[in-house]
Design brief:
elongated; alpha/beta; 13-stranded mixed beta sheet; 4-stranded parallel beta sheet; 21 helices; disordered C terminus
Length: 668
């Protein structure tokens, strides 16, 4: 492929852009697959022709050179056509989301596009009555005279190639020039060793930087871009597409990588059986962007890829067109202590440079622009690798001082039962403020249900003793199956739920006895019905098993009324008690955690309560079959059942009367 191919726009110029790279591949390999999207699949020649048609349509509609066109559609193949056509028309593009109309309208409100290019249904969804100029996507193919398939004659590329949006609830537009977009692609091409044989799949939304700038990795290197037939991707569809289309490179965020490689049903089965995941055999690389990853998480993900496949942890910004620094485990020169505390972002992409100013990381792109303040903290290790240190915007107040939560969260992750951690300040019942740790299970956890092995606050504080000062240790925990994340895949601290007491206070502050929203009767009713049904089913099976283990123990032949009825009711109570005990043994531990006793006492009390309920069924049946003068058996039964019942009762008394260890009490 010839670098810097000619680009004719009302005059001869030699300019290199991502558009020229794509057009060169379209000329050299017109029959090669470019977009793989079911019936909407296109080869390079077809894609180029379609983009040329739409570019002529845009020019005829009055789109000025260097004008901004907002593109919104749920048809991924049409979206890529629109991006290329906009560049061919000499304009710049901004992809707005359509799967969540509110987000798309927010994005449109932050920019002033010349026009919105979308299908009719999506135009109605995105236009909130502000009178946007509309260009209907697809109209260029319905016109009688048609449109030429040659590239339009326009002036060279303008200053801006694309406007990318940052993640989060309040999207911020970031203009990106042609040089920067090309520089990001070239950095990716070198780091990821992109080839024309690659088939790329980008799991994130089309309005995010990962797609709005990442399409170049496939189409500017001669590879194919695998798209959903209708956006967005689902977890099941991603796995199916990887297997069916022999995808070689998946670009995703941390949660997406965990789902694909560890938590998907097939991935979990392969991991439990210690087998390779056959559906992912085609993968040679997974790139993860959007948020921090710790070394233990990287190792768990890497272990699920076949030998020789690469796992890249990429740190990039919208301002740098999705490139910046990259890290993979082979960059480490030796084994690391405490991998669960280390989040490395590695070394800069080719052409980029990274500097530290007051601890803040700044990236300088290869296009000669100024250094970009990232708002993130980092440090340079002796081995030359950059270590992530947290985000300045996430700072919280701990013991009267402003602190970065990332180092504290890293220490909490040293508990073997904790995978993800976010710290937040919360208010106790006495008005004092303290730290709450929002924790989720490790990425490779196998416990069911998810999160069932997360530590309670007493156990966690016991683990942190000597690792963190008491003032920096969390005073309560909130257990989550997964940390909340925004559309870009970043951990979303603003979406953390309130602890129970604060949430109840917030509801009650609105109005009336129960507050604006009223008590959670529906939730309680559903939970109660489920528990009741489970008790009845277990009690029924317990009744059936009684005659199996103790034949004749419930035979009431010859017992007069009303005593036979009284004994029958007693047997029913024993069945139900045993069923409740089984359920409490399995699920009751989580209901005891809010008391925040020492973990050993809580575990013991949990087992004691379960035993008090479970023991009645075997105890009474055994006694009924024992001869009254069989003193050896009677003594054995007393010591096997009665004495443990006394001990269990004492343990429960200790648990109920002992004051919780924590000085903060956020939950009842």
């Amino acid at each position: 492929m010839t670098q810097g191919s000619e680009f004719k726009r009302s005059g001869e110029r030699t300019v290199d852009t991502v558009l020229h790279r794509f057009e060169q591949w379209a000329r050299d390999t017109p029959g090669a697959p470019a977009l793989i999207a079911g019936p909407d699949s296109l080869g390079y020649g077809q894609l180029d022709a379609r983009a040329n048609q739409l570019a002529h349509h845009l020019i005829a509609a009055g789109v000025p050179a260097d004008g901004l066109v907002a593109v919104g559609t749920a048809r991924p193949a049409e979206l890529v056509v629109a991006l290329l056509a906009t560049l061919k028309a000499g304009a710049s593009y901004a992809v707005v989301g359509v799967d969540v109309p509110g987000t798309g309208r927010q994005q449109l409100a932050t920019i002033q596009p010349y026009a919105l290019l979308a299908h009719g249904a999506h135009q109605a969804r995105l236009d909130d009555g502000k009178g946007l100029r509309m260009i209907r996507l697809g109209a260029e193919r319905s016109e009688i005279d048609g449109r030429p398939t040659e590239a339009p004659a326009r002036s060279g590329p303008g200053r801006t190639a694309a406007v990318l949006f940052t993640g989060g609830k309040q999207p911020r537009p970031v203009p990106v020039g042609h040089d920067r977009l090309l520089g990001a692609h070239e950095g990716w091409a070198e780091v990821a060793a992109l080839t024309p044989e690659d088939r790329h799949l980008i799991t994130t939304g089309s309005d995010g930087t990962a797609f709005a700038a990442g399409w170049t990795r496939a189409l500017c290197s001669g590879g194919a871009l695998v798209l959903p037939e209708r956006s967005p991707w689902t977890a099941e569809a991603i796995r199916g597409a990887v297997e069916a289309e022999k995808v070689t490179v998946v670009h995703t965020h941390p949660a997406g990588a965990v789902q694909l490689l560890l938590r998907d049903r097939q991935a979990s089965a392969a991991r439990v059986l210690d087998k390779s995941d056959e559906a992912l055999r085609s993968l040679r690389m997974v790139t993860v962007t959007g948020d921090r990853l710790f070394l233990d998480e990287l190792a768990a993900l890497q272990a699920r890829l076949r030998t020789g496949a690469r796992l890249l942890d990429v740190y990039g910004l919208a301002e740098s067109a999705g490139a910046g620094t990259w890290f993979e485990l082979p960059q480490l020169s030796r084994p690391q202590d405490d991998p669960e505390r280390l989040s490395l972002i590695g070394t800069p992409f080719p052409g980029y440079s990274a500097t530290l100013h007051g601890g803040e990381l700044r990236l300088t792109p290869p296009d000669g622009g100024d250094a970009i303040p990232t708002g993130d903290l980092a440090g340079l290790r002796p081995d030359g690798l950059l270590e992530f240190g947290g985000r300045i915007r996430d700072r919280i107040t701990v013991a009267g001082r402003s602190r970065d939560p990332h180092p504290l969260e890293s220490v909490i992750r040293t508990h073997p039962g904790v995978g993800g951690v976010l710290l937040a300040e919360v208010e106790g019942r006495d008005g004092a403020r303290g730290l709450a740790a929002y924790i989720s299970p490790p990425a490779d956890a196998t416990a069911w249900p998810p999160g069932s092995e997360l530590p309670e606050i007493g156990e966690l504080r016991e683990h942190l003793e000597g690792r963190l000062p008491a003032a920096q240790s969390p005073r309560t925990v909130v257990k989550l199956r997964a940390l909340p994340r925004n559309r870009a895949g970043q951990e979303d601290r603003s979406a953390l739920p309130l602890p129970v007491r604060q949430a109840a206070a917030a509801r009650g502050a609105h109005s009336g006895k129960y507050g604006k929203y009223g008590p959670t009767v529906g939730d309680d009713l559903v939970a109660g019905c489920g528990f009741g049904c489970a008790v009845l089913v277990l009690a029924f099976f317990t009744m059936l098993l009684t005659d199996v283990f103790w034949p004749g123990s419930t035979d009431l032949t010859g017992v007069p009324e009303p005593w036979a009825t009284f004994f029958s009711v007693l047997y029913l109570f024993e069945y139900v008690a045993f069923a409740v005990g089984v359920l409490f043994l399995i699920f009751g531990r989580s209901r005891m955690r809010p008391r925040r006793h020492a973990p050993t006492l809580t575990r013991t009390a949990h087992l004691a309560v379960a035993y008090l309920l479970l023991a009645w069924w075997p105890q009474d049946n055994s006694y009924r079959l024992a001869a009254k003068n069989d003193w050896a058996l009677q003594a054995a039964l007393v010591y096997a059942f009665n004495v443990p019942l006394m001990i269990a009762g004492a343990i429960v008394v200790r648990y109920v009367t002992l004051k919780p260890a924590s000085v903060f009490d956020f939950e009842d």
